[in-house]
Write a structure and sequence with these properties.
Elements lengths: L6 H14 L4 H17 L10 H20 L10 H12 L5 H17 L3 H4 L18 E7 L5 E10 L9 E7 L7 H9 L21 H12 L18 H8 L4 H8 L5 H7 L2 H12 L2
Antiparallel strand pairs: 1-2, 2-3
Helix pairs in contact: 1-3, 2-3, 4-5, 5-7, 9-10, 10-11
């Protein structure tokens, strides 16, 4: 390439980006910004390569993209229902993977579903490193038994979420996840997986036997592999975030109030305070109802 570029050089480069590379108008603009910077670094005159015909080409591409987006069918994200959970359980059972991975995936699915968690409240964002101040460690989940008013005992997973999205002051959220006794019981799934792991309070909770954390991205890839043959993704996708809307959707169908649903899902700035005020007996009763569905 010879510097400085002429308008013809810029048009040819832009045509290659849009036609051969098939990049978006925004991406092409980033490349052109790099070309401008390259002129500065070489100490040559910095041309306004976005002027005239080049700018019109990019604007036309951007308008075309907008039309295509409007015309495309919006797939959206589907919630994970109890029916989907039972499907996930069956495909995991038939999954040609070691028992370690089957138990791990099922434990994450049940906890994400029954706790309405954001996936990175449970899983690490990177395989090679993690920040203990933001990542769920083994020590952050406690399994306890709780006596209920009126008699009976239930088991609870007490999950301490560090730096939750709804608390922007650096606090934590303590989430109780109750056993249901049903086919998707999160406590049972967690115990079955945990009993096969070597305990280490300072390690990422959900990890493989070699210590590699299960990440949100990896979870999504595995989930699509499992559900792809059974769900039409052209009609709507099921991702890790679909678990978060599962219980609230179900509670709506069961007739629970908006306030109860908000508390379970932590969907307002003060949701943590309201959630903790909801009596344990009420939440335990909800869990038992879900187990019978």
């Amino acid at each position: 390439m010879e510097f400085p570029w002429r308008q013809k050089d810029t048009l040819l480069f832009t045509d290659w980006l849009l036609s051969d590379r098939n990049v978006s108008a925004a991406t092409a603009s980033c490349y052109l910004a790099g070309i401008r910077k390259l002129h500065e670094l070489r100490g040559v005159e910095n041309p306004d390569i976005r002027k005239g015909l080049v700018n019109q080409v990019l604007k036309g591409k951007k308008n075309t993209e907008a039309v295509t987006k409007r015309c495309a069918e919006h797939k959206g994200r589907l919630p994970v229902t109890l029916t989907v959970m039972k499907l996930i359980k069956e495909v995991i059972r038939a999954w040609q993977q070691p028992m370690e991975w089957r138990l791990l995936m099922w434990a994450v699915c049940t906890l994400a579903f029954h706790g309405s968690f954001r996936i990175h409240e449970l899983l690490c964002q990177h395989e090679t490193y993690f920040d203990p101040d933001f990542t769920l460690l083994e020590q952050d989940v406690q399994l306890k038994k709780q006596k209920l008013t009126g008699g009976g005992v239930t088991e609870i997973l007490i999950v301490t979420v560090k730096a939750p999205k709804e608390n922007r002051k650096g606090g934590v959220a303590v989430i109780d996840v109750y056993e249901t006794g049903g086919p998707t019981c999160p406590v049972k799934a967690f115990k079955q997986w945990k009993n096969r792991q070597q305990s280490d309070d300072n390690k990422v909770l959900f990890r493989s036997s070699d210590g590699t954390p299960l990440t949100g991205r990896r979870f999504n890839v595995l989930l699509k592999q499992l559900l792809g043959p059974h769900i039409d993704y052209s009609k709507g996708s099921i991702t890790a975030h679909s678990f978060r809307s599962g219980i609230p959707s179900l509670l709506g169908e069961l007739g629970h109030t908006d306030e109860e649903i908000k508390r379970v899902g932590r969907w307002s700035s003060r949701a943590f305070e309201h959630y903790m005020k909801l009596p344990r007996t009420t939440r335990a009763a909800i869990a038992q109802k879900l187990g019978k569905l």
